[in-house]
Amino acid sequence: MLVSLLLPALLATSATGLSIQHERAEPPSKALDARQAVVTPPPCEPMVPEPSAEETEERFNRFANAFLVTKNLTEAFEYISATYINHNPWAENGPEAALDVLGPIWPTIDITVLRTTFQCNTGWLNYVATGVGEVVDRFRWESGCIVEHWDFGEVYPE
């Protein structure tokens, strides 16, 4: 019954010279694909009781490995607090903002780790990234989570 109602309308459309155009959807960009591939983990929950300096350093090392070596942003961001403050003047605060920036580009960047250091609840990563050059990231840890990040004008501690 439905076909008998629609068929005359379709025939009338083609008889009047009108044609139905199908819009071709553009394929998603590689950048969008890369960001969609990053699963946003729940934010890091503060540990109670607070972890020891050794435990926090071990968490930093796992973060550094996920971030720089395996380039697994989902795993790396398990250590980022919901209250994450990014001190880069061109970046917004919060883990989602950082993932939105890094997600599309991180899989395409080649990284050479130069060194890492952890002392007094602060971790430093020093690496070379293609298209960017040498980078020094500083992360402040609190209760087992990364709560602050600096990279603009950072110098590796001696």
Structure explained in plain terms:
The chain is α+β, with helices and mostly antiparallel strands. The chain has a domain at 53-150: Nuclear Transport Factor 2, Chain: A (Roll), CATH 3.10.450. Helix content is 34%, strand content 25%. The protein has five helices and five strands. The protein has a five-stranded mixed β-sheet, covered by helices on one side. A hairpin with a 2-residue loop joins strand 2 and strand 3 (122-129). Helix 2 packs across helix 5 (95-105). The longest helix is centred in the middle third of the chain and has 17 residues, at 53-69. The N and C termini lie far apart (82 Å).
Summarize the structure.
This is SnoaL-like domain-containing protein. By secondary structure, the chain is an alpha+beta fold.
Name its key features:
disordered N terminus; about 160 residues; 5 helices; Nuclear Transport Factor 2, Chain: A; alpha+beta
Q: Looking at CATH, which topology of one domain would you report?
A: Nuclear Transport Factor 2, Chain: A
What amount of the residues lies in strands? 25-35%
- Rg for CA atoms: 24 Å
Which architecture name of one domain does CATH use? Answer: Roll
Task: Outline the secondary-structure elements.
Layout: H1 2-15, H2 30-37, H3 53-69, H4 73-76, E1 80-86, H5 95-105, E2 111-119, E3 122-129, E4 133-142, E5 145-150
Parallel strand pairs: 1-5
Antiparallel strand pairs: 2-3, 3-4, 4-5
